[in-house]
């Protein structure tokens, strides 16, 4: 598949993370969604994957719908979380004993090149659907997770990812950073 290199503006900046994140994680994440138009959450924890969907000013989590599959969103086990939408992504990650966060926002900032790519998610069989989350399973291994997809979703689903390019001092291109754009149904090309 040939990659189409596009040009557009994007801005990357650090975000302040409150000292009380350990007690206010879900609230802090929810507060970040509206200013940037974010609608989906993908979090990786020590004990599994947590999906989320943003409704108004709150986050609905896969661990609420399928607690036996999706672990709870806890600061002590969270490795990283990505809130994303069509024009921005906020990434929160653990660094030592503290937290760091950054936002990548399209449509403002410096001009640069990028390309989009689809990443297939495991899960080719739907098992159950609750509260907007579809429990999917992959093959005989029994790997399961619950992304925010409708009951009749075309599987496997995929994540649309944007890779921003930069050039080193020798003129060699490299991927400087990447962000999630969307969770989409159906296989990707």
Give structural notes.
11% of the residues lie in helices and 53% in strands. By secondary structure, it is mainly β. It has two domains: 6-106, no CATH class; 113-184, no CATH class. The strands form two sheets. It has a ten-stranded antiparallel sheet. Strands 9-10-11 form a three-stranded antiparallel sheet, with no helix packed on it. Strand 9 and strand 10 (133-138) form a beta hairpin. The longest helix has 16 residues, at 21-36.
Protein traits:
mainly beta; 2 domains; 10-stranded antiparallel sheet; 2 helices
Layout: helices, strands, pairs:
Elements: E1 6-15, H1 21-36, E2 40-45, E3 48-55, E4 58-61, H2 62-65, E5 78-84, E6 88-95, E7 98-106, E8 110-120, E9 125-130, E10 133-138, E11 143-145, E12 158-167, E13 173-184
Antiparallel strand pairs: 1-7, 1-8, 2-3, 2-5, 3-4, 5-6, 6-7, 8-12, 9-10, 10-11, 12-13
Please tell me what the overall shape is: globular
Number of domains: 2
What class would the helix/strand composition place it in? mainly beta
Quaternary status = single chain
Mean pLDDT rating: 93
Largest sheet: 10 strands, antiparallel
What share of residues is helical?
Answer: 10-25%
SSE topology string = EHEEEHEEEEEEEEE
Strand content: over 45%
- Individual helix count: 2
Distance between the termini: 8 Å
User: What Rg is obtained from the alpha carbons, in whole angstroms?
Assistant: 17 Å
Query: Spatial order of the strands in the main sheet?
Result: 4-3-2-5-6-7-1-8-12-13
Low-confidence stretches: none
User: How many E-type strands?
Assistant: 13
